[in-house]
Amino acid sequence: MDWLMGFSNDKEKLLKQDTPDFQLRIMHRKSKGKPNGKKPAPEEKKLYLEPEYTKSRITDFEFKELVMLPREIDLNEWLASNTTTFFHHINLQYSTISEFCTGESCQTMAVCNTQYYWYDERGKKIKCTAPQYVDFVMSSVQKLVTDEDVFPTKYGKEFPNSFESLVKKICKYLFHVLAHIYSSHFKETLALELHGHLNTLYTHFILFIREFNLVDPKETTIMDDLTEVLCSSGSGSGGSSNGSGNGSSAGAQNHVKER
User: Where are the compositionally biased (Gly residues) regions (predicted)?
Assistant: First the structure.
């Protein structure tokens, strides 16, 4: 992922600029109009879907080819290497807007019409703020990728039988973080002029999890509109999201989801 080199070096400088003030069980509940017959407020326009911003990338790599398993490379090794790298880059991308993601500004871990809850080791559902949720994600992933029994780095060390399921879990959570940045902090990302980095990272990540079926498509449906734009226009994705992008988004406007 050499395309992100120099990103961290620019972070401190960029954050000094003036910026605008600016989960997994699903339950559907249709939003009903008020007794007086007023219709629900229309969904807020998504700034990150504006053509002038979606076309911004920092490289023209064919990511579809980049994510493919190289010949003579062990699958688990490839998954481990990429998952670890994505973790570090997504953590870095979030850190650029973390000062704007507070308990007050983001009282829930929300992405568009979906609210995510954290589940602890005992399966207890925990409602938390977005920064708390991201901290849970990053702490738990950090613990896994640095565990030699899970992500072995020494020659001859075998991957655990549960490795693929753990990678899927990690990717699901990392997707939540990326989606939250777009949904709640794209204005800040834009002000920092890091939307090109974000678009490139998102495209690379989505094509990677698609290539190895690491995240259930139902999980990523919430961002299908963005995925349709970024991963089917000159990015080597090999197609769209089965046409579910715009339809799913429009049909979900009057629904509230909890995960």
Answer: 235-248
8 A C-beta contact, residue 235 and residue 64: yes
pLDDT at 83 over 50: yes
Q: Is the pTM of this model over 0.70?
A: yes
Q: Are strands 114-116 and 255-258 parallel, antiparallel or unpaired?
A: parallel
Q: CA angle, corner 27, sides to 26 and 32, nearest 5? A: 140
Q: From CA 64, how far away is CA 258, in angstroms rounded?
A: 32
8-state DSSP, 158:
P
28 marked among binding-site residues:
no
Identity at 228, one-letter amino acid code: E
Q: What is the DSSP letter of 195?
A: H
**By the 8 A CB rule, do 257 and 113 touch?**
yes
**Which tokens in the block code for residue 182?**
């777009």
Cβ atoms 177, 136 nearer than 8 A: no
Q: How far apart are CA 94 and CA 179, in angstroms?
A: 11
* Packing angle of the helix pair 75-95, 163-191 (nearest 10 deg): 30
Residue 180 annotated as part of some ligand binding site? yes
The CATH class given to the 23-30+44-52+74-258 domain equals mainly alpha
- The position carrying tokens 């493919």 is 68
Q: Quick one: tokens of 59? A: 């490289």
Is 101 annotated as belonging to a binding site?
A: yes
- pLDDT (0 to 100) of residue 19: 39
Q: Is 106 annotated as a binding residue?
A: yes
The DSSP 8-state label assigned to residue 109 in this structure reads E
**Which residues does 112 contact at the CB level (< 8 Å), separation at least 6?**
179, 183, 222, 252
pLDDT band, residue 121 (cuts 50/70/90): confident
